[in-house]
Amino acid sequence: MATTDQSASPDAAPTRIVLIRHGESASNAGRWISGLETCGGLTDLGVAQAEALRGRLAADPDLRPDAILVSTMRRAVHTAEIIAEPHGMVPQQHADLIERTSGEAEGLTVEEYTEKYGIAPWTDWENPLSPGGESGDEFASRVFSATDRVVGEHRGKTVWVVCHGGVIMISAARRWPVASEATSIAALPVVSPINTSVSEWLVDPAGLWRMARYNDHTHLVGVTPVDPQAPAAL
Questions:
Q1: What was the pLDDT predicted at 4?
Q2: pTM exceeds 0.85
Q3: Residue 154 marked ligand-binding
Q4: In a domain, 96, yes or no
Q5: CA-to-CA distance for 232 and 122, rounded, in angstroms?
Q6: Is 22 among the annotated ligand-binding positions?
Q7: How crowded is the C-beta side of 8, counted as CA atoms within 13 Å?
Q8: 21 is known to lie in a ligand binding site
Q9: Does 195 count as an annotated binding residue?
């Protein structure tokens, strides 16, 4: 949960954590469970989404980043490289920002997974998707630690974090006590963020988190259809 820093000046600027979901990936389009080894990168639509976001962010000087952080998955790295280009910045890759790991199920389609394991993927919060993957609690613990690390290393700065739907949902759900009782990611009190959507936290000097916006994807008008049922973790 949020931490406090009693030594922080109450007049210090808040830390802005801008969470950006990657553009549409090959696994989103093909509905397979992807990981570091099977991430197919962005589709042509995913590139177009990232380019639309690049234009929007470049036109907003108030959101100019002091740092750009990114998951080590290809789809996130490609998205970060596209939106970072106007700022001449190299995104910093961090392995603790990746999507929930899936273990030996990596590479299976949703249908193949359901047939093999007798349950739809991401509906069991307590257990890993398959041997070698993370449980929901392990994933949440990693996300909490990663986002707290980002704040600790960039106090008072604006930081873009290009990551994944599950990471953004867990980050948002940390503000609701019910999140600790969720039995699946579908039970979290937040919707799956759209590809290249923007969600933003303001973290005050005392370490209190306040959400400024969630799943803001107005830059996609005319670029892509929106499927609110698309799984966050593909």
A1: 41
A2: yes
A3: no
A4: yes
A5: 9
A6: yes
A7: 18
A8: yes
A9: no
Between CA 11 and CA 168 the distance in angstroms is 28
Residue 228 lies in a domain: no
27 annotated to a ligand binding site: yes
> At residue 98, what is the residue type?
I
Picking from 58, 64, 63, 76, the residue whose alpha carbon sits closest to that of residue 20 is 76
Query: What is the set of active-site residues?
Result: 22, 99
Among 170, 201, 224, 186, CA closest to 23: 224
Give how many domains the chain has, as a whole number: 1
The CATH number of the domain holding residue 114 is 3.40.50.1240
* Structural domain contains residue 215: yes
Q: Does the residue 48 lie in any domain?
A: yes
Residue 196: give the domain boundaries: 15-220
Q: Beta strand 198-203 with 15-21: parallel, antiparallel or unpaired?
A: antiparallel
Predicted confidence pLDDT, tens digits, the chain (234 residues): 344 444 456 668 999 999 999 999 999 999 999 988 889 999 999 999 999 999 999 999 999 999 999 999 999 999 999 999 999 999 999 999 999 999 999 999 999 999 999 999 988 888 999 999 999 989 999 999 999 999 999 999 999 999 999 999 998 876 654 555 555 555 666 788 999 999 999 999 999 999 999 999 999 998 876 554 455 566
